[in-house]
Amino acid sequence: MPFDLAIPAFFRSQGWKVKIRDRERLEPPHASILFKDKTWRIGLRDKEFLDSSPRPKDVPKKLLDYVVDDESWNELHRQWNLMYPSNPLDSDEDES
């Protein structure tokens, strides 16, 4: 079951979502930031975008700041570890 991070209503009303999708256990730990048909993947170990397209700079700065804020970031870590115990965030190696 995917996990949806609660984000500010302003972004939700525009169509933004932040989630950890299911069936991604073999990928590097990441959260997906979604808007319409675009998906940005941000690494949960280093806060770096995993892809160059779509352009990371197209994610609103205030939304990204919210996602990497300690409270949100810790919840994303917790949820990843619950969903993918075989690929935990405290592991030094990705199982990709």
Percent of residues in helices comes to: 25-40%
Trace the largest sheet across and list its strands.
Answer: 1-2-3-4
Rounded average pLDDT: 92
| Class derived from helix and strand content | alpha+beta
Structure description:
Strand 3 and strand 4 form a beta hairpin. The protein has helices spanning 9-14, 61-68, 70-83; strands at 3-4, 16-20, 30-35, 38-43. It is globular and about 35 Å long. It contains three helices and four strands. The mean pLDDT is 92. Helices cover 29% and strands 20% of the residues. The protein has a four-stranded antiparallel β-sheet with strand order 1-2-3-4. The chain is an alpha+beta fold. The longest helix has 14 residues, at 70-83.
Task: List the main descriptive attributes of the protein structure presented here.
96 residues, alpha+beta, four-stranded antiparallel β-sheet, 3 helices, 20% strand
